[in-house]
Amino acid sequence: MSLPTVLSHYLTHRPQRIALLAHINEQGSITRAAKAAGLSYKATWDAIAELNNLTLHPLVERSVGGRGGGGARLSEEGLRVLRLYQRLQALHAQLLGAAQDNADLDLLGRLMLHTSARNQLAATVASIEHAGINDMVHLDLGGGLSLRAAITHDSTDRLKLVAGAPVVALMKAGWLTVHALGEAIPDTANALTATVEALELAAPGPGEVRLNLSNGQTLCALVDNPRLAGLERDTTVTVSFDPGSVLLGRPL
């Protein structure tokens, strides 16, 4: 599918994420918003977690009370993003109508990338340590949390990374290890304290655990079912992962 066609579908039918924001704003309930968006309850919360992870301020907030009991609502940032999208809709027809040649748009389509990584955290480069052909990039996640990414110096140059640069840190769920508090973790690993939000056993395994960080971001980890069965909701754990497992992306 060419990019003009993708753009037309994206803006005419509303992308799933933006549609979900609109439904939450209209319904004030995760259950009703999921139904309106044609998503499962779990898929809806996964989408919300991804949205909140990619912004400095959460787009969706839990609310207490309201229609049908507790639910969710858009934050001021969420409302701002939704209004921005509505303005983009107005520009959509103008953009495609003015295009004389779709080749440039198709090129942009090839440059855009969707990723299979479940964990995508917005971060800011705090500092960079150079060590031969490799660099250790220290990232600030906000709220006093940080992590490290080990990448090649060539990647640092290609991404034009400097202190203060905004990036997205990507980790596949299978690269994360969940530990009980006090369990030994290698000094070289990233380690983040988190609270268990949800558990889902799978057959065959591994199962899935969703974790809340203190800064409002979330992580998803794959855990063998026997170990997953020993975890409980609302318990505090430590999540570890190797700096070499952290991929970095930077907005164009």
TrEMBL record:
InterPro entries tied to this protein: LysR_HTH_N, Mo/tungstate-bd_C_term_dom, ModE, Molybdate_resp_trans_reg, Mop_domain, Transp-assoc_OB_typ1, WH-like_DNA-bd_sf, WH_DNA-bd_sf
The organism's place on the tree of life at top rank: Bacteria
Pfam family, one: TOBE
Presence of the UniProt keyword ATP-binding in the record: no
Matching SUPFAM superfamilies: MOP-like, Winged helix' DNA-binding domain
Gene3D superfamilies: 2.40.50.100, Winged helix-like DNA-binding domain superfamily/Winged helix DNA-binding domain (1.10.10.10)
Keyword rRNA-binding: no
Domain Mop: 114-180
Keywords carried by this UniProt record: Molybdenum, Repeat, Transport
Family: Belongs to the ModE family.
Record-given protein name: TOBE domain-containing protein
